[in-house]
Amino acid sequence: MYEIGTKVRFSLFGRSHGPCVGGILEGVPAGFPVDEDMMECEMALRKPTGKIGTPRREADKVMIAQGVVDGKATGQPILMIIENGNTDGSKYLKFYDTPRPGHADLPALLRFPDHDLRGSGQFSGRLTAAIVAAGSIAKQMLLTNGIRIDAFTRSIGEVIDGTSHSADEARGSREFATRACTSRMDVLMRDHIESAGAAHDSVGGTVECIITGLPIGFGGIWFEALDAELARAMFGIPACKGIEFGDGFELAMMRGSESNDGYRMCDGRITTKSNHMGGIVGGMCDGAPVVFRVVFKPTPSIGIEQETINLKDGTDDTVSVEGRHDPCIVPRAVAVVEAMAALTIADQIARGYRWN
Ligand SMILES: Cc1cc2nc3c(=O)[nH]c(=O)nc-3n(C[C@H](O)[C@H](O)[C@H](O)COP(=O)(O)O)c2cc1C
Q1: What are the beta bridge partners of residue 85?
Q2: Atom 7, ligand 1: which residue's CA is nearest?
């Protein structure tokens, strides 16, 4: 099992082509109402759609095997199980000899001699289904504290949405398959993904996440800093290759006079004039929404022939991937980013980082 969190603790298990994937969520207080309809809506947002997602279609029905009775948490660990139905391992056999570049095959085969490569085993994005299920409960816990987490697709390949978006607009992305904020961007992003897929190639992109409702001072310091823990959580998502808060890497080109977010009083409340820092200073919230972007690399499995080695013969070789794959991970990753952010914040609240 793979674990994250201390008080609100999430453990992940399963393999792509095993009987199921699932998760255990600890730290949900007894009596907390668990809304399974909301969970189903969140699960639907991770499902692949049309030609922009993998042809592998799964029911993704979450079975809550224990920890919830009559719609209320018992206070015991919540066990969630999601069956794997639509499996076909035949296309993966050749990767035992010729591992796919960009995927976990080579290091996994050398490290785990009995590694099950079908569907990429425990390295499959399939396991993120359980993250979204657990994240939906964490989101419900946060909503009772007035905290919301809304993400959307900021870019797909060279198609970049250059407009600043509010949390409400980000929430509106749920209407669009690409998780873009507008129908125009949705069309452009979809075309970009479909043309990469038609060329047997793939594309990456960025997910932007906005967290609202956190009070000034919320967070930890040093290694428990809010940005440090969010970054760790995001890097746990397969294919994440970077994260930036606020203006991120552009801050390197600014002066302090440009990058500092000045404080202002607004209707008796402390606010910031701008949000170059992404709402976090010193590991704690500064009153602005927490804003960060996560980079997802292009899907490693592609139909185009690539260079690899032959582990059996010890020679150079080539490999191309015929299995079922997402030509772009980003639209499906939006729900996963929201879920990991929710689990992180819920844990920080449970650890006592709530209000100053
Ligand atoms: C929601 C989601 C779906 C994914 N789908 C695929 C896929 O269809 N094909 C693939 O090669 N990788 C897919 N990935 C990415 C791989 O799991 C990932 O690249 C691989 O495990 C190697 O890990 P790394 O990229 O973090 O180094 C997906 C990731 C996520 C989050």
Answers
A1: none
A2: 325
Q: What is the pLDDT of residue 58?
A: 81
Instruction: Count CA atoms within 13 Å of residue 289 on its CB side.
Output: 19
Indicate the helix (H) or strand (E) that contains 160: strand 159-160
By the 8 A CB rule, do 280 and 286 touch? yes
Q: Closest Cα to residue 275, out of 252, 296, 245, 254?
A: 245
Domain boundaries, the chain: 2-350
Whole-number Å distance, alpha carbon 214 to ligand 1 midpoint, is: 31
Tokens matching residue 80: 């969630």
**Pocket flag, ligand 1, residue 192 (CB < 6 Å):** no
Nearest alpha carbon to residue 72 among 130, 22, 29: 29
User: What is the distance in A from the centroid of ligand 1 to the CA of 142?
Assistant: 28
Lowest mean pLDDT among 50-59, 167-176, 225-234: 50-59
- Taking only the tens place, the pLDDT of each residue in 134-180 is 999 999 999 999 999 999 999 999 999 999 999 999 999 999 999 99
Cα separation, 235 vs 213, whole angstroms: 24
* Cβ atoms 167, 146 nearer than 8 A: no
Topology annotation, domain 2-350: Chorismate synthase, AroC fold (3.60.150)
Q: With a 6 A CB cut-off, is 239 part of the ligand 1 pocket?
A: yes
Residues in the chain: 356
